[in-house]
Design goal:
Strand 1, helix 3 and strand 2 form a beta-alpha-beta unit. The protein is an alpha/beta fold. The radius of gyration is 16 Å and the shape is globular. 48% of the residues lie in helices and 15% in strands. The chain is built from 7 helices and 5 strands, in the order ααβαβαβαααββ. The protein starts with a helix and ends in a 6-residue tail after the last strand. A 5-stranded mixed β-sheet has the order 2-1-3-4-5, with helices on both faces.
Length: 192
C-alpha cells in the first residue's frame, strides 16, 4: 500500500474513533444529515471514508455509533456480520468505484446470530449464517470471545477476497459493546 493510502485509512480510522468517543455521551445522533449535505451528496455523489460490515441487530447503528452523516460510511448489514459473494461485491464496489480506503468488520456483544451458532439447531436460511459462524468459532462457548473470533474470520475472508480481486484497502475488525456503546478496534499495532 502506498504511503498516501496508508495516510487515508489512518485518517478514516481516526474519524471512526473520534465519532465513537462523541457517541459515548450523546443523547441524539450527531452526523450531518442536513438538507445541504443531502444536496451535496446528490450533486457530487458519495465519498465514504469507511466501509462498515455490521450485524443487522437493531441495537447496532453504525452511523450513530460513529457519529457519521450522509455519505460518510458505506454500510453493509447482515446478521452475524458475515459476508457472502453479494456482500463482497458491495465491498469491492466501495473500494474500486468510491475509493474507500478502510473496511471495518463490526461485531458486537450479545449477538443473537453468534449465540444461535453456539447453541446450534438453527434451521431454514438462518442455518447458512450460523453454519458460517460455527466454522469461525469452532467449539468456543463464550459469547464475547466467539464474537471476536467471528470478526477475525470475516476480516481474513475479506482480505483474501480483496487480494484475489486485486483491490487494496486496510481491513480491520472491531467489537461494539451493546451495554456501553464503546467500540474496541482489533488493530494490528505494527500498522499504526
Amino acid at each position: 500500500m502506498k504511503n498516501t493510502d496508508t495516510e487515508k485509512w489512518k485518517t478514516s480510522l481516526q474519524a471512526l474513533k473520534e465519532g465513537n468517543r462523541k457517541y459515548l455521551n450523546a443523547r441524539t445522533g450527531g452526523g450531518d444529515i442536513s438538507p445541504e449535505k443531502r444536496l451535496h451528496a446528490f450533486k457530487n455523489g458519495q465519498a465514504p471514508y469507511a466501509v462498515v460490515v455490521s450485524c443487522s441487530d437493531s441495537r447496532v447503528l453504525p452511523e450513530s455509533i460513529f457519529f457519521a452523516g450522509i455519505g460518510d460510511l458505506f454500510v453493509i448489514r447482515v446478521a452475524g456480520n458475515v459476508t457472502d459473494g453479494i456482500a463482497l461485491g458491495s465491498i469491492e464496489y466501495a473500494l474500486s468505484h468510491l475509493k474507500t480506503p478502510l473496511v471495518v468488520v463490526l461485531g458486537h456483544t450479545c449477538c443473537g446470530a453468534v449465540n444461535a451458532a453456539i447453541k446450534g439447531g438453527a434451521c431454514g436460511n438462518i442455518k447458512m449464517i450460523t453454519d458460517k459462524i460455527r466454522l469461525a468459532i469452532s467449539g468456543e462457548r463464550d459469547d464475547c470471545y466467539a464474537s471476536r473470533l467471528n470478526v477475525e474470520a470475516e476480516v481474513n475472508a475479506i482480505k483474501k477476497a480483496l487480494a484475489k480481486a486485486n483491490l487494496c484497502a486496510e481491513t480491520i475488525g472491531a467489537i461494539y459493546r451493546t451495554d456501553t456503546g464503546e467500540v474496541e478496534f482489533l488493530e494490528n499495532s505494527e500498522n499504526l
